Amino acid sequence: MRATPIKGRGSLSNGTSRFEAFQRVSFDDEWETSQTDGTPKPATTVTAETAKSIISRNDSPDIPFDQSINPYRGCEHGCIYCYARPTHAYLNHSPGLDFETKLYAKHNAADLLRKALSSPSYVPKLIALGANTDPYQPIERRLRITASILAVLQEFNHPVAITTKSASVTQDIELLAQMAGKNLVRVFMSVGTLDREIVRTLEPRASTPGARLEALRKLSEAGVPTGVIVAPVIPSVTDHDMERVLFSAKDAGARDAAYVLLRLPLEIADLFREWLAAHHPLKEAHVMNLIKQMRGGRAYDSDFGIRMKGSGVFADLLEQRFRKACAKAGLNLTRHPLDTSLFRRPAENKRQLDLF
Questions:
Q1: Which of 49-53, 201-205, 302-306, 311-315 has the lowest mean pLDDT?
Q2: What domains does the chain contain, in order, with CATH numbers?
């Protein structure tokens, strides 16, 4: 039974977690009903989560940071390809619709961060915001957890790199500009394509490509260093737009650029195939074949060194196109590391009288 797309949602289904003993399976019961006239649209729910720790650490050689903060679990943007989807299985939720409708907000994130940074053993290193789920997804406008985290980082003069698909990042532009004045922040906007029709189903609740570029422009004009990540590059769906994204981002003020090939670990492979069958049925087999060519014959290869870019002729061609476009646009000419030398614990700035 072919799933029916739901307006405003990326996933077409809500299969059970891979850790569940029993699996839900859709089948045709021959009743003449459809999601548009019979099944209610799934609503978004937000649950307050009391986190035990807030800084996540990794030792991956594929990414330029080893510390990150994720204010939220799940993401309402609903990007069908999101590599964070499988993490919802740990909560006994589906990586499908549950991931984009059952959200968790770490309301104590700022307090935990202040405690972590105040520890005498803490050594300041770059912290990434948005490494897993988007820190500026729609609920941030109301909850402002990301804003509270940035306020703590500013208080400690701690460097941070932000990655988002949301133009809402500009709501913190004054704070970001202040931090940029001390070389403490850099903002990367993720833009996979400028085609609004593709984005409408691929990333249904993320900002439009035009709004993201305008956010880059505003941030750049405010003195905040910006960059663009062409992600994900989907062969035969979005890859044709790589050069256009890079040149448009440069025109908006971006200095740096990167790209990431589509990644399909665990449940995402089936979710993506389902999306292809619904929205690009004539390309489904061709796209999956191209992906397998770049993933050693599989839907995904998780090996370090190739999981972000892939391997093979098509992957090499993408890398050559990216490098030539960046050189022509004047991207990635220089990148100065963010400053860790200004880090101060607020208590260190307070004068304390000697006992004797």
A1: 302-306
A2: 45-254 (3.20.20.70)
Would strands 256-261 and 72-73 be described as parallel, antiparallel, or unpaired?
A: unpaired
Amino acid at 215: A
- Calculate mean pLDDT across residues 245-253: 98
Q: Is the separation of the CB atoms in 226 and 273 below 8 Å?
A: no
pLDDT at residue 22, as a whole number: 57
pLDDT, average across residues 231-239 = 97
Residues counted in the chain: 356
- DSSP codes joined into one string, 106-163: ETTHHHHHHHHHHSTT-----EEESSSS-TTSTTHHHH-HHHHHHHHHHHTT--EEEE
β-partners of residue 161 are: 128, 186
pLDDT tens for each residue of 87-117: 999 999 999 999 999 999 999 999 999 999 9
Separation of alpha carbons 272 and 251, rounded Å: 32
- Mean pLDDT (the chain) is 92
Q: Which residues pair with 230 in a beta bridge?
A: 259
The mean per-residue pLDDT over the stretch 163-176 comes to 98
Alpha-carbon distance of 7 to 200, in angstroms, equals 9
- Residue 239, classed as helix, strand or coil, is helix
Segment 31-42 mean pLDDT: 55
247: closest CA among 309, 314, 308, 321?
Answer: 321
Write down the pLDDT at residue 33.
Answer: 47
Q: Count the Cβ atoms, other than its own, within 10 Å of residue 333.
A: 10
Cα separation of 274 and 336, whole Å? 42
The residues, ordered by sequence, that sit 6+ positions from 274 with a Cβ below 8 Å of its Cβ are 3, 11, 12, 13
Distance from chain centroid for Cα 354: 49
3-state secondary structure 284-329: HHHHHHHHHHHCCCCCCCCCCCCCCCCCCHHHHHHHHHHHHHHHHH
- Specify the DSSP class assigned to residue 65: -
Place of tokens 């439009």: 208
Predicted confidence (pLDDT) at residue 31 exceeds the cutoff of 90: no
CB atoms within 10 A of CB 34: 9
